[in-house]
UniProtKB/TrEMBL annotation:
Protein name per UniProt: Sulfotransferase
Single GO MF annotation: sulfotransferase activity
Keyword terms, alphabetized: Cytoplasm, Transferase
Lineage start: Eukaryota, Metazoa, Chordata, Craniata, Vertebrata
Gene from which this protein is expressed: LOC110287694
Domain of life: Eukaryota
All residue ranges annotated as the Sulfotransferase domain in the record: 35-161
Species this chain originates from: Mus caroli
Class in the EC hierarchy, top level: transferase
InterPro entries: P-loop_NTPase, Sulfotransferase_dom
Location in the cell: Cytoplasm
Family membership noted in the UniProt record: Belongs to the sulfotransferase 1 family.
Cellular component GO terms, alphabetical: cytoplasm
Principal subcellular localisation of the protein: cytoplasm
Amino acid sequence: MMSDYYWFEGIPFPAIGYQRENLEDVRSKFVVKEEDLLILTYPKSGTHWLIEIVCLIQTKGDPKWIQTVPIWDRSPWLETDSGYPALINKEGPRLITSHLPIHLFPKSLFSSKAKAIYLIRNPRDILVSGYFFYGNTNLVKNPGSLRTYFEWFLKGNGHLQSGESSGDHWTSAEFAHEVARSRHGLEGVIYYFKI
């Protein structure tokens, strides 16, 4: 499966659309601005839905922006070949999307007053959504069967997954609390756990 990927810091990235140099620059050089809003999600967690909702909130419900500007221009993915340069050159408040795990995220986030929304989805739903998505795209290797995809998923051998960090830092309440304590001016953190 991994022939369509390259590994960077323990995470597999698709060979198309991601460059090692950009990933290094994102972590070490990218500056998160105070007025930025970040959407952080694990792949197949409902990222596009959340972007659409946030864009409608930002425009007070006016759909013209989302109807005329592609989603990748409204909220570029920080780690992609097209998103990284677009975000560097963007003026004013930026809406930034990322699937990066915490150890690859820009260090500047942790000293910034930028707002961040982290979306967590039930892993069973992520598994099924990922299986159907990757089974119907030419962007990455097709898993073929749900059994094969399930094995990849458990091993962390899928798009932006790591067997060692799958669901660790970003999804832990301890991490969220740590970020809340370390960020100056953070007004509050809302935790919602459905058990």
